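Handover notes (outgoing to incoming on-call)

Open items:
1. Chloride channel protein: sequence verified, structure written out, both below. Nothing else pending on this one.
2. Nothing else urgent.
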Amino acid sequence: MLTGLFCAVLAASLKHLTEHFEHLLFGHTQSINPLLFIVMPSVGITMIYFLRKYLFQNRKNKGITEIYKTLDQRKDHLPLFKIPSHYVNGFLTVLDFC
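Chloride channel protein structure tokens:
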């Protein structure tokens, strides 16, 4: 029950945080120069690369397939660094392509 509540709070916070920053970024970019819409995804992908390399110690993050494999192999948990890694990478990925 606690795990479900924790996951729901994380999902809702990711949704609302992404939507809030997307509106801020979209409005700011549109008012400055619309050509920045071409550059912004490259900036986001570069940020994800450096975050994964330095903050998450160059460990791979395979997304939802990794979670399915963990459940399929009956493991009890994902490594602790994977939760913020998925959260931050998801946030940056969705934000930069909106």
